[in-house]
Input
Amino acid sequence: MLFEILRGDLAARIGRISTRHGTVETPAYVPVIHPVKQTIPAHEIREIGFDLVITNAYITMKSYGQEAVHRGIHDIIKYDGAIMTDSGGYQVLEYGKVDVTPPDMAAFERGIRTDFAIPLDRPTGLGMSYKQAESYVKHTLRVSRETLGRHGGDDSNQIWVGPIQGSEHPKLVTRSTKSLTRMGYKMLALGSPVEFMESYEYRLLAEMIITAKRHIPHSVPLHLFGAGHTLTIPLAVALGCDTFDSASYILYARQNRYISEDGTRRLDELEYFPCCCPTCSKYTPAEMLQADLEERTRQLALHNLYAIKLEVDKTKQSIHEGRLWEYLLKKARTHPKLYEAITSIITTDDVRDAFHTGTAQFKQKAVFLYSHEDQYRPEVAAYHRTARRFRAKGKSIVVVTPETKSKPAYLSREYREAYRHDYDGDGDDNVDNSSIQFCQYNPVLGIIPIEISDLYPAAHHVTAVRPYNPELHVEFAETWDRFFAKNNFEEVRYYKNDEFIGHFVERLDGIRKRYLPDK
Ligand SMILES: [Zn+2]
Output
């Protein structure tokens, strides 16, 4: 099997891709290697822990010709891990066209024995008209079909990667993805988000990934072209990208830019290095500024590789722990534009569906709930769905109180005391609570009928106690409305000083409202 999935969270997965040059664990950052003028030798990049790199077959062809076919790409760039080759599509995007035909390029990629080969595509850039993008998509699909027809069936175990085009036109992305999948591509690649990132178009990027992912079988890994920023990686991974390449480590280094977990800095802005990689342990920013250009670029590029590796590993550990949601929202706080994008992306139906399907229904660990944004996290949304279906059979009174500290709620002291309390209010000693539906609530998690208060994550969460603005809790409102529509309560009881629930009680018509005796 080409791709083995070990674990998932949101739409992300930890997986393994088998190649002729070893196993690549995903999600994986794929550093771009220049076949001629590479600053950091590829074998050093392997030592840092990158098992897959990407290099350019077109430049290799232009610089080495048939020699590359004799020696093989692994010898050309001196790298013994897995290699992916881009076929010149990027040059098409930059310069309009390349002087080689797709069949010749495909034969060359086969000849140099690359592990992952990409047909010579014609990328659709950001801002391209629909008509033009459509003609590029058609061209790329025709080339992809021919290439796979000629080289896909061979026994060399070379993995052909189908290039999805269409950019910001969802119809074209859909068409492109569906066609490539039908053709039998075992791995797909999505282009060309560099431009999206440069213009902070995270939302467009997310939509493009989601559109493509909807039509990609679960077992097919997805590569993202041009994503190598610590702010973009967790988002792209959360949306289901498995590998992503970029030359960011060296491009930034050449501009004296230092990658950190919350963006990039200019070297001269740094008084301290917020990192302890070998480079940052050895130098101070002042010392590095004094180094000659070549050494400084080299050291910065090395640091940048470590910084990206750290970001990928943190993201992977979050998937492992089932805390990618928490990590994504933490990450969102690093830049207002990212925050804006992420908090808006997570409310869309498409993203919620994608996150839902990849997230385990029950987890080992409690979920952390901080604010109304967490109402969209998949585990919480799943609980809302269950509460919306809940039937309180034969109950005419509903009691709604804030959540208790000890969980599950039915084992809490407060519940046991409440249950013993004479709720029928007739003043005699005859306590009969059989007509009462007890519920607790959590502003994020919604209404918690006592009978399902042990269902994950009702008893497995830690919520920040703070004033919650009921207006922002649209999921709560929806669950509340459906809960009351499904069950024919005659009376609702709640605490007078509970403003949050008071807001929702006001929405109810045709029901008696009574305060509970003060606690
Ligand atoms: Zn460092």
In short: The mean pLDDT is 91. The radius of gyration is 28 Å. Residues 310 and 366 are 25 Å apart (CA to CA).
